[in-house]
Design goal:
- The structure is a single chain.
- This protein is mainly alpha-helical.
- The protein contains 16 helices and 6 strands.
- The longest helix is centred in the N-terminal third of the chain and has 29 residues.
- It is elongated.
- This is NAD(P) transhydrogenase subunit beta.
Length: 492
């Protein structure tokens, strides 16, 4: 065994340890940055030592002559891909982060499938054809199937989140049957790749090649048909699921090329993404299967500011001065951010209001629902950007305990996750765990209109006698509250 190969394996082992420890640190917002940096360091080391291995002929590399061109290709990919990734990450708005994650999922799945296709094509075109081993053909078939579904499905999800594709469930006559048929064809073609690939005749090689193309096309079609019927309310779960698919595709690509660090990294992403998908589905009291069936959520339907709607007659409206008095006199205030806050980019105004109240002696915390926003952890990251202390962010159970004791609950742009209709049967969100905002002594909701959330039903919280509606854009409404509270505190 060459010294370079030994060093490579040791670095791969160290990188795998970095991935595991980094993932552990990402469990908490307080340590997530360190976890991300540790995982990135492990991957950087793995990439560098892989490039070194390319130059070692004794270790199976291409040697210095071929390594120059391989290095140019690798370096070019790092510069172009890494450069665009850095540009996109720094330029993207927090409201567009879910779209960016979906695009990254698409890139990861597509890249993994491309690796499998490239290696399979090289093997199928070999001059001395003697068949494919099962240990090679099985991961190739799985990689192409999972990677293609991830690629096309993630692109559709990104389109829905960006508004290029309707956020409402999209179906057409025969769409379910076509989706099922495409899935069956994709799996069947994958089986043919494995079976025919084991043959040694030219006919077996031709059959395996054609089956690989059929599997790719059918899987791409299934990815599109799988995501189209899923509504906007389920997008956080879809993003988690596709992220898990990306990890599985990368792990399969690792088996194809015999790269241990890809297998470990992909397996970790796949496992953590699967667990997160289950947790997100549980947070909505729905099974992953029912989400994939689709049909829930109406997407973003813009509505004019102001009361409107049939329930407007029973709604109690308030102005900024009314709310400022409630907040200034309160002992405990719970802030409930939702996607409306993210859409208005009002996290800094909310943090400013919280700091103002805290300096006035009011105990302030933030109630974060698991599916608030458009992706897992979206609201936590948004608030962290505004330097909100992590200890003030309360998850569902802890937040509900505080809502039972608070004087004022201020809801900013949240809808379905605060709807008491979830507690009774017969509604689109029945059984979904919600934030018990209506348990607070007083409730104030900042919202542009009485428009529905993704579930497409009226929010019974808005007509509760203890609820006051401040109709305004989240950013403008919070700015009004900050000014009113400052004036009231100064005058007091």
């Amino acid at each position: 065994m060459s010294a370079t190969l030994t060093i490579t394996w040791l670095v791969y082992l160290g990188a795998a340890v970095c991935f595991v420890l980094g993932l552990h640190l990402m469990r908490s917002p307080r340590t997530a940055r360190r976890g991300n940096a540790l995982s990135a360091s492990g991957m950087t080391a793995a990439v560098l030592v892989t490039a070194l291995l390319l130059l070692d002929e004794d270790g199976g590399g291409v040697g210095w002559h071929g390594g120059v061109w391989a290095g140019v290709a690798l370096g070019g990919g790092i510069v172009v891909g890494g450069g665009y990734g850095l540009y996109a990450a720094r330029r993207v708005k927090m409201t567009a982060m879910p779209q960016l994650v979906s695009l990254f999922n698409a890139v990861g799945g597509g890249a993994a499938a491309t690796v499998a296709l490239a290696d399979a094509s090289r093997a199928l075109a070999a001059g001395s054809w003697d068949g494919l081993s099962v240990s090679f053909s099985v991961p190739v078939a799985l990689d192409v199937l999972i990677g293609a579904v991830t690629f096309s499905g993630s692109l559709v999800a990104a389109g829905k989140l960006q508004g290029w594709v309707s956020g409402a469930p999209i179906t057409f006559r025969g769409s379910r049957a076509l989706a099922l048929a495409s899935a069956v064809v994709a799996v069947a073609a994958g089986v043919v790749v494995i079976v025919a690939g084991g043959g040694s005749s030219d006919g077996a090689r031709t059959t395996a090649s054609l089956a690989l193309v059929v599997a790719l096309v059918a899987a791409l079609l299934f990815g599109v048909l799988m995501v189209l019927p899923i509504g906007g309310a389920d997008m956080p779960v879809v993003i988690s699921l596709l992220n898990a698919f990306t990890g599985l595709a990368v792990a399969m690509a690792g088996f194809v090329v015999g790269n241990e660090v890809m297998i470990v990294a992909g397996a970790l992403v796949g496992a953590s993404g699967s667990i997160l998908t289950k947790l997100m589905a549980d947070a909505m009291n729905r099974s992953v299967a029912s989400i994939l069936v689709g049909g829930f959520g109406t997407g973003d339907a813009p509505s004019a500011a102001g009361p409107g709607g049939g329930a407007a007659a029973t709604v109690r409206t308030v102005d900024a001065d009314d709310v400022a008095i409630q907040l200034a006199y309160a002992h405990r205030v719970v802030l409930v951010p939702g996607y409306g806050l993210a859409a208005a980019q009002a996290q800094h105004e909310l943090a400013e209001l919280a700091n103002l109240l805290t300096s006035h002696g009011v105990a302030v915390s933030y109630a974060i629902h698991p599916v608030a926003g458009r992706m897992p952890g979206h609201m936590n990251v948004l608030l962290a950007e505004a330097n909100v202390p992590y200890e003030q962010m309360k998850e569902l159970e802890e937040a509900n305990a505080e809502l039972d004791q608070c004087d004022v609950a201020l809801v900013v742009g949240a809808n379905d996750v605060t709807n008491p209709a979830a507690r009774r049967p017969g509604t689109a969100i029945s059984g979904m765990p919600i934030l018990d905002v209506d348990h607070a002594r007083s409730v104030v909701v900042i919202k542009r209109s009485m428009g529905h959330g993704y579930a497409g039903i009226d929010n019974e919280l808005y007509t509760d006698p203890r609820t006051g509606m401040l109709f305004a854009d989240a950013k403008d409404g919070l700015a009004q509250l900050v000014a009113a509270v400052k004036e009231y505190v100064t005058a007091g």
